[in-house]
Amino acid sequence: MARKVQRNDPCPCGSGKKYKRCCQVKENAIASGRANRRRGIQIALGWVSHAYEEPIASWVDDVWLKDMSEVQHGQIGSAHPAIRSIHDVNLLEYLTAEGVLDGVEGENRPLQLILNASIGLDDEQKAYLSQLAERPLRLYQISDVQMNKSFSIKSYPDDGSEEVTIADASSSTMFDVGDTVGLRLMQSDDTWETSGAIYHIPDEYVEGLLSKLDEAGADGYSKALTHYWLELVALHV
């Protein structure tokens, strides 16, 4: 296993400077910015889930869990706690990015309600959240993993687009090369990040999902992906 670069080592980029004076500075700035943006998402999702608890409960039943049986509802509720945690993140992210709340007078889009609220978000956090409505949920395949550092993805099925590398130490531990996942990519400066939502699709279910996505078309793509993933959660796979 390769030795971790130490602060006083020569920087691997070849600049001739010490690592702490070169690439570590950049890496720390990127990590700090990402932490701030993720903190903004947590503040936003926490606020909207409490401020609009009843309309969101109706949205969950009418949209998120639409056409799912009571049995499936119960199976989703009894999923492993780690899967339940991912489920809750996926639900709130999808609600914020694409949801519309019934029974709310005036503005009823959760994202705009968040951006209009005085909840302590800074300009960077607001700009990042605004991307949720602009960045589509799409299916990708993991093409490379650098454990505790980064992972790379390509569109799936491969449409010829370039591979994207995402510097994310935490998420890199969750993936293996060849995994198929639904992600919403967000851009910050010259780097790509994920919004936090992860829809992992086991290999044996990928072809079934692709058929569903073809049937749904562009307008129904994200809903078909989320609903298919929820069915898998209900099956505990």
Protein architecture, described:
The protein contains 8 helices and 6 strands. It is α+β, with helices and mostly antiparallel strands and 237 residues long. Strands 1, 2, 3, 4, 5 and 6 form a 6-stranded antiparallel sheet that branches. Strand 2 and strand 3 form a beta hairpin. Helix 3 (70-77) crosses helix 8 (206-234). The radius of gyration is 19 Å and the shape is globular. It starts with 22 loop residues before the first helix and ends with a helix. The mean pLDDT is 91.
Low-confidence stretches: none
Number of beta-strand segments = 6
The secondary-structure element order is HHHHHHEEEHEEEH
What structural class should be given to the helix and strand makeup?
Answer: alpha+beta
Strand content: 15-25%
> How far from one another are the termini?
32 Å
The average pLDDT is 91
Helix content: 40-55%
The dominant shape is globular
Rg, nearest Å: 19 Å
Sheet bearing the most strands, described? 6 strands, antiparallel
Number of helices: 8
Q: Main traits of this protein?
A:
single chain; 237 residues; alpha+beta; six-stranded antiparallel β-sheet; 8 helices; 49% helix; globular
